[in-house]
Amino acid sequence: MIIGDQIKHLRTAHHLTQQEFATKIYISYQSVSNWENHRSYPSTEIMLLIIDTFDLPLNYFIAKDIDATTDHEETLILSSFLKCMATSRDEAPNLKTIQQLSCVSAERVQHHFPSYDDLVYTLINKVDQDIKIRVEKRLSDHEGVLSIFINDMAPLLYHKKETLHILYTRPYIKGVWMHFINTKYQSLLIKYNPDIKKNDLDTAYLIEILTTFISIWLSQPEIEPLEQFQKRITYLVNHNIASWHA
């Protein structure tokens, strides 16, 4: 079974329309249609998101046959998209600029990413993937949320500070990134702490506080060193905010 057929089978097995399936994985329904009609493949990051969202085995798409050129093109396009954002604070990159910088034809760019949203969410998933994996592992070990935030998540964020600074300071992508992070990490907290769901408002406040800490930190023109940020958050929590427990 090729990848388009696998996705269609998965979608219909969950009784989802193409739009509903697309919404669950933060992608456009046009992409789902293209995959199912064998006009394009999802990126590696999107496949990992599908696997994670539907609790599939890691080798679910292992039979997928995509040549090295396809992966290379996707990497070039995403890298060019990021470079365009680095040079333009207020204006979102357009297809022509990305195509020129990546040296990938406009047709191939659209083949990989049928819409601007697809490009945005693939980049976001790529940036977040290893962070999410680490945080989920710590949550599954029943570590406290604040400890995970300071000792596990913050170092991973700092390692990607240049890219994250762009996501937090470009108005045309910041809102999408913040919504993505809030939704994903609220879902993770509920998954590993079912009791949290009994008080959705508390969870919403907790996520909002933590993401605000990150947003302020990574939005600064000069991002403060990791250890300084960790000390700052520890001090603020111990002196100004009641203790949180996972």
From TrEMBL:
Does Nuclease show up as a keyword for this record? Answer: no
What superkingdom does the record give?
Answer: Bacteria
**Membrane-crossing residue ranges in chain numbering:** none
- What InterPro entries does the annotation carry? Cro/C1-type_HTH, Lambda_DNA-bd_dom_sf
Does the keyword field hold DNA-binding?
yes
Q: Name the SMART domains for this protein.
A: HTH_XRE (SM00530)
Q: Name one Pfam family in it.
A: HTH_3
Every copy of the HTH cro/C1-type domain together lies at 7-61
The protein's name in its UniProt record: HTH cro/C1-type domain-containing protein
Origin organism is: Leuconostoc gasicomitatum
